[in-house]
Amino acid sequence: MAAPTTAVTVEGYDGEGVPGVNALQIQQRYGEERAKRLRDDGNDQFVDISLHPKYASFLEDPWVDPTRIKDARTQFLNDRAGMIVLGAGWGGLLYAIRQVQAGMKPEDIRIVDSAGGFGGTWYWNRYPGLTCDIESYCYLPLLEETGYIPKHRYSYGEEIREYAELCTRKWGLEDSGVFQTKAEKLVWDEEAKEWVVMLVQKRKKEQEEKRLSVRSPFVATVNGVLNWPKLPGIPGVLDFKGDVFHSARWDYTVTGGSPMEPSLTKLEGKRVAIVGSGVTAVQIVPQVARWAKHLYVIQRTPSGVDERGQRETDSEWFKKEVAVGAGWQRERLSNLHQHFTTGELPAVNLVGDGWTHAPGMAAAAGNADGPRSMEELPDYIKRLHALDMPRQDRVRRRVEQIVKDASVAKKLQAWYPTWCKRPAFHDEYLGTFNRDNVTLVDTDGKGLGSLTDDSIVAGDQSYPVDVIIFATGYRAPFLGTPAEKANMAILGRAGVSMSEQWSRNGPQTQHGLLDANFPNLFLSGPWQAALSPSNLFNLDALARLAAYVVAEAKRKSGGGAFAVTITGEAAESWGNQILMNSAPMSAVAGCTPSYFNVEGGLDRLPPEIMPTVVRSGLWGRGIEDFVRVVEEWKSEGSMQGIEVIT
To answer: Which cofactor does it need (predicted)?
Structure first.
């Protein structure tokens, strides 16, 4: 299933007029840069903080408000709930809100999260400069329902978190959160047709854990895509004597400032290292550089950084040009998707952002105009490169235009296709490297070597520092099952373990929503579902589908207890459809290692398990085609493939 690794020429392309540059040379350069990042240990080069108790300090919650944390035992009437949603981020909120809209009472829903409040990634991440890279008029859900007008074209993190709180109030869910609480085990009770959920709550470090067992007919696993921070597995992380933290747990007691006022005054006079150069580091680096005595940016592979074009939202313009007529937000999202997941561009670009000028992202998001067979794949990859190379050349030239030191600029140029790493958009990052107090430590793909008690070591050079900030990302989103993503066990019919079942056969779903072995357990992707740059759209598509299925199943059941699941035939059919439509996704094989391809691990999988892996993957025709398939299924009206067992 792997894409060809040999270079292909692109007819008519000469590198946008750059003398001596052609598609063959660029492809060869891509391969050389990829080779620098390939490692035998692959994803094992990282430490998953949540699985190693000695790194527990990196996971402490700096944001919790003890006054809003209740005893979990008091939040379940008779140890029961009508639905338990695992995850209080935007995905969990969308699941809960769509159920409320479909008729479920808000007081019957419990939203469980180890955080101290709503927001998910926007609860945990509060680093200076935090901004969504998707246009806010597309990203923030439910704008039409709430009438809310985002303050900026790209919303800052605090606004997104506050908007989440606003939505909980609008739909009566503000008291549904069960915080600082984690699900450890789910067990299906076939006779009662409900889930037994084992929870553990620890409200303060000095308090003992409280364990409780509750029941609910429905559970939704909405634990996030990038939720468990990771560190590089290098010697000396715990030996460093200075201040050290992960960007997902920003420590303002070390830096000074706050999420509302990022004046990092405590960094004055200090030497700081930021480890990482992905989209998080791109936002942090300019903020820290303003305050630190000296900043070292440790880079393995540079991000391709295009301009952002941030601006405040003019409310009158928004009302006249954006929020025009019923369904305006869905139309805008469809317009966004059409720029890289369909074969025909829309007549008008409603969004006009960097994503709509990155057509090569079809390789990662799926494409309705993609190949229908593996035989068509080489020509498809050739087409993708023809679309993508001009953009990547422009992004590389942008570095040369902004960064004054030619040697530094060269190291900041991204030599891989757009689709191999999440694109970055920022108006200040590149210019930061013109500052005298900023040093790029380019490790030529190798990463940081080690830490001593007072320094970082890269290659054969040591850099004394006072503060280290790890912007090293999260557990890869495609690793494991919903059980592993939440660090819990899920036991379904006849005690079958989801972890074991999926490792043998992959998920057995229809539309990525319900697995045949786990009734009344609603999933949230990405397995056997689809992908948009705006992950909230993916989550909302499944949340809407879950609300529809629950409402229809209740109607069919006649009011008693029931199990809703899918037939084995439906699961087999959907898995085959995923497989048959997988060819467009194969272009990501051969990418520079990143979380997109599990640090290159997908390329090294044994051939005998590839069919299972592909059947577990994404709908290759893109998110809009996935929604079309789901809507046609709903319109048919019979809930084909669904079983309601009373």
So the answer is: FAD
**Residue 297 to residues 55, 407, 635: CA-CA distances in angstroms?**
23, 15, 53
The residue type of 175 is D
The closest of 340, 314, 366, 283 to 137, measured between CA atoms, is 314
In this predicted structure, the answer to whether residue 1 has a pLDDT above a threshold of 50 is no
CA angle 36, 284, 264 (to 5 degrees): 140
Confidence tier at 205 by pLDDT (50, 70, 90) = low
Q: Are 13 and 573 in contact (CB under 8 A)?
A: no
Residue 13 has pLDDT above 90, yes or no: no
CA atoms within 13 A on the CB side of 196: 12
Cis bond upstream, residue 584 (ω within 30): no
226 Cβ contact partners less than 8 Å away, ≥ 6 residues apart: 121, 473, 474, 475, 477, 595
Provide the β-strand partners of residue 220.
85, 522
Token representation of residue 359: 């057509």
Find tokens 């030529």 and name the residue.
444
More confident residue, 597 or 283: 283
For residue range 248-264, list pLDDT tens digits in order. Answer: 999 999 999 999 999 99
Q: Which of 431, 157, 65 is nearest to 282 (CA)?
A: 431
HSE value, Cβ hemisphere, 13 Å, CA-based, for 272: 29
- Provide CB contacts within 8 A for 646, sequence distance 6+: 557, 558, 560, 561, 562
Q: Which amino acid is at 429?
A: Y
Separation of CA 189 from chain center: 32
497: β partners: 491
Average pLDDT in the 203-223 region? 89
The backbone region for 559, taken as left when phi is positive above 0, alpha when psi lies in -120 to 50, beta otherwise, is left
Q: Judge contact between 293 and 268, C-beta under 8 A.
A: yes
Tell me which DSSP letter residue 102 carries. T
What is the residue whose two structure tokens read 């981020």? Answer: 89
Amino acid at 620: G
Q: How far lies 496's CA from each of 190, 435, 493, 516, in Å?
A: 12, 58, 6, 11
Closest C-alpha among 576, 484, 478, 492 to residue 527 = 478
Phi, psi dihedral angles at 69 (to 5 degrees): -95, 120
Where exactly are the structural domains of the chain? Answer: 69-227+476-563
Inter-residue contact 183 to 488 (CB < 8 Å): yes
Burial of 291 (0-12, 13-18, 19+ CB in 10 A): buried
Compute the average pLDDT of residues 288-301.
98
Beta strands at 109-112 and 305-306: parallel, antiparallel or unpaired: unpaired
69-227+476-563 homologous superfamily: FAD/NAD(P)-binding domain (3.50.50.60)
CB neighbour list of residue 360: distance below 8 Å, 6 or more residues apart = 340, 384, 385, 387, 388, 391, 392, 417, 418, 419
554 pLDDT higher than 80: yes
Residue count (the chain): 646
Residues 326-380: tens digit of each pLDDT: 999 999 999 999 998 877 789 999 999 999 999 999 999 999 989 998 899 999 9
Mean pLDDT for the chain overall: 92
